[in-house]
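We modelled the chain as a single entity of 264 amino acids. Its sequence is:
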Amino acid sequence: MTTHRHLALVTGASNGIGRDIATVLAQRNHDLVLVARREAVLLDVATKLEKQHGVAAHVISADLAATDAADRLVEKLSARSLTVDVLVNNAGYGLYGKVIDTNADAELAMIQLNVVALYRLTKLLVPGMVARKRGRIMNVASTAAFFSGAYMAVYFATKAFVLSLSEALDEELAGSGVTVTCLCPGPTATAFREVAGSTKSKAAERPQEPSMPVAEAGVDAMLNGVRLYIPGAKNRFETSMARLLPRRMMAGIVGRAQGGDSHS
């Protein structure tokens, strides 16, 4: 007798928090659809998870920073008759520097990935979940979502969008059997700083948490239908300050914490 497993789609699954979330879901008996740009890396991750946990791990190579990529991804799911029960919108990146100095195309691609692809995948997959009266969504934001972040202004703004959308959508879906969880980690040991070009900034001096505990806590929160989860007592304290202190003051504090090599 074949036991039905829920199918989880994880974007940005080739490394970092996304790979660890996929691992945790496999440990908890979920089949997987792993999505990222690097197909060879995804295939390696999929093979390991299948061998270690006895789940099915499907691989779809996609650059979600490309226009209409989310729509094409959903078409591929349909062509393979894959029904998504759990959606993890994890793919995203940052870009360090002043807005007047940073590359506009790179920032537009960041908005496409961090905001548009996340919105579009959610928009396309939620109706089926509601019709089946079950589903879980995790949108990976950041503690950055709570602040205005000079020197990474566009990245912080994208994460504010993710947080706001997630909380509102979870409210709209109350009673439907579908929940939305926004995971807001602080500095985490991934390739984020290297990709963002912020390794020489003041912010890079902050210690990073291992990614696996963040992934485990995030999956727990999602499966339990928690709307917002901020891992780590320090991160929860800092985000609470965003609610208490004047916004102009907080922008200055974050700007000083972020500043570094932006003038070079």
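As a brief sanity check on the tokenised model: The domain at 7-258 is CATH 3.40.50.720 (Rossmann fold). The first helix runs from residue 16 to 27.
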